[in-house]
Amino acid sequence: MSRFSPPASFSLVHPQLYRCATFSSAHFDFVASLGLASIVSLGEDIPSKALQTWCERTQVRFVKLGNRHHDLEATKTWKPISDELVKDALEFVLLQANQPCLIMDQSGIYETGILVGCLRKLEGWTLSSILAEYASLAGSRSRGSNEVSRRVDISPSLTDTKLTTMRTAQQYIELFDTDLVAVPVQEVRVGWLAANEAATTTAA
């Protein structure tokens, strides 16, 4: 494998904002080429020693949010991810000082996909566009509902468990309250958010 191979589920969210699955030493050279300032881990998995050492050596700030907000069983909530995790992660990636930034979880699809969906909602995307992006990046591993499958091409081979998980992911994004997010002031937030707000205002 080429050392410049991207991690699984890698894609560009915005200039200087990327997403992928948890990566290994096989992908260090590729990730290094991104010139990252920070990595945000949304999953419960513990980063490998190699990854921790690589971040220290390359002076990339590694922020693990997933282990702070995954105690959902105690609350018996239907939510597949906590509001606090999404809020904290969004507020982090919206700060220009944390860019370039890579967000990831074990698969690069689940928590990361929900977070990006909530980001798109904050940006004013339509729900159908958000779900279409979610499904296109997830491919046959996509998580959504039967409603999503009518809007976009989703593999019919998905198990009932995956469809249930997809349904809760879709519902969470749809119901997420963007007012929970303390959007940084314009002077310190990412430029692409201000550009999107201007475009939305013009379109309205």
In short, what is this structure?
By secondary structure, this protein is α/β, with parallel strands linked by helices. Helix content is 43%, strand content 11%.
Describe the protein.
Helix 4 (110-123) runs parallel beside helix 7. Strand 3 (38-41), helix 2 and strand 4 form a beta-alpha-beta unit. The protein has helices spanning 28-32, 49-58, 83-93, 110-123, 127-138, 146-151, 160-175, 191-203; strands spanning 11-14, 17-21, 38-41, 61-64, 101-105. The chain starts with 10 loop residues before the first strand and ends with a helix. The chain is globular. The model is unreliable at 142-156 (pLDDT under 50). Strands 1-2-5-3-4 form a five-stranded mixed sheet, with helices on both faces. The longest helix is centred in the last third of the chain and has 16 residues, at 160-175. With 204 residues, the protein is α/β, with parallel strands linked by helices.
The overall strand count is 5
- Give me the Rg, rounded: 17 Å
The coarse overall form would be globular
Q: Report the total helices.
A: 8
Could you list the spans in which at least 5 consecutive residues all have pLDDT below 50?
142-156
Main beta sheet strand tally, sense and closure:
5 strands, mixed
Structural class: alpha/beta
Gap from first CA to last CA: 48 Å
